[in-house]
Structure formats: structure tokens, C-alpha cells
Amino acid sequence: MKNSPDVVRLSSATKRYGSGPQTVTALDNVTTTFTRGTFTAVMGPSGSGKSTLLHCAAGLDRVSDGTVEIDGTELGGLGETALTLVRRDRVGFVFQAFNLVSALTAEQNIALPLRLAGRRPGREQLRAALAEVGLGHRATHRPSELSGGEQQRVAIARALVTRPAVLFADEPTGALDTETSRDVLALLRGIVDRHHQTVVMVTHDPAAAAYADRVLLLADGRVVDEAGPC
Ligand code: ADP
After folding, report:
1. Is the pTM of this model over 0.90?
2. 113 part of a folded domain
3. Fewer Cβ neighbours under 10 Å: the N or C end of the chain?
4. Which residues of the chain, if any, have pLDDT below 70?
């Protein structure tokens, strides 16, 4: 249901890769929800299914069985075009490697999702998005002229500019030093607290997970432990 407190809902979500004896069950019957205005960390050893969970929950990949709902829309029933629109309009994504467009300035990078959606962003809107991540003074810098932490802030602003229902972050501090990581995590925490943004972050770092309200621990594609409010 739209406006339900559950922004993302996975029900018996299962993802298999390959077929026959080669089949890998990367996600095994996972049922969980991500509630509006909460910050969830997804942890677990390498190969436990963290990225698969994130990709399926974000509509970047389809589950083999079970269902995924984003903001009241069940993804399984959607064709590719409709799924692309859900991803574009309802989901933000931040990656370990920032993935900014090197030829564009910070401001132009942030404008990109809006332009792709056929909207013409106003300068004030873009400056406000940059100011929100503490980079009001870096609007015309290109990624090569920004530090790693600054680039990740631009990527966060870009992910949030469409006001997505949920922001997914895949090891967002994986390429950053400890101090810069803390700044980026505090920024994410602040965005959850100030704007009631829903954030789901994959991390292998317990210090990063400490910024979350809730930790989901995966092993062999299953949720094996959960700490914090559900
Ligand atoms: P994590 O993010 O926790 O390291 P992943 O979600 O990447 O784990 O992977 C979970 C399991 O699924 C692993 O066994 C991995 O080898 C397998 N896997 C992931 N993606 C693919 C793929 N595209 N094809 C085949 N197997 C995959």
C-alpha cells in the first residue's frame, strides 16, 4: 500500500543463479521489511547474499520466487519499462566507487537523474541539494577535483535529488578512510533523522553498522540474526 510505513517489503524472496547442478541460491526465502525513516545495515560474510538482497530489493534484479514491493508496487508484475520507471523515480542508489560522470561538474552530476526523467532542474534546487550534503562551495568542481568523501557526498545528493522512497547504499564507505567514512555515515544518519529518509546499506564494517537503527545479518542467503527495531 502506498504511504504504508513499509517502504520495501520482501516476502519469501528467493534468488537463484544458474540451473541444474550449477544452481546457486544467493537469496533463500527472505521475508523482511524496511520501514519509512529507518536506517538498516545489511551485514554478513562475503558470498552471504548482501548484494543480491540489495539488487533485488532495489529492482535492479528480479527474484526467482517470492515478491518484492517498493512503495506499494509489487515488482514481479511489472514489465521492463515500468520497472525502469520505479527504479528511476522511487529508488536511489549509492555505490562504493561513487560512479560519478567525470566530465560533468558536481552540480551537473546531481542534475542528471532529473534530466533523464525529462525534468529541467532549477539552479536553486541543485544548490540546495549540494548544500544539504555540505558541498555548496563545490558546485562547479569536477569529480577529479574533489576528494573521495566529497565525491561520495555528490553521489548521495544525486541519489536523493529525485526524492526516492528508499536509498540503497552498497558499501558506501568501502573506498574511504576511517575519518571520511565517519563523515559520510553521519551524513546518511542526518538525512534519515531530518528527512525521514529510508536507507538500506550493505557494509562489512561494524563501525559503519553502528550508525544504523537495525542490523540484518545474512549467512548463506538467509537472515540469521536481526538487531534493533524491525
Ligand atoms: P555478498 O554481497 O554477500 O558478497 P552476493 O550477493 O554477491 O554476496 O553473492 C551471493 C552468492 O550468489 C554467492 O555465492 C555468489 O557467488 C553468487 N552470485 C552472485 N551473483 C551471481 C551471478 N550473477 N551468477 C552466479 N552466481 C552469483
Report:
1. yes
2. no
3. N
4. 1-3, 229-230
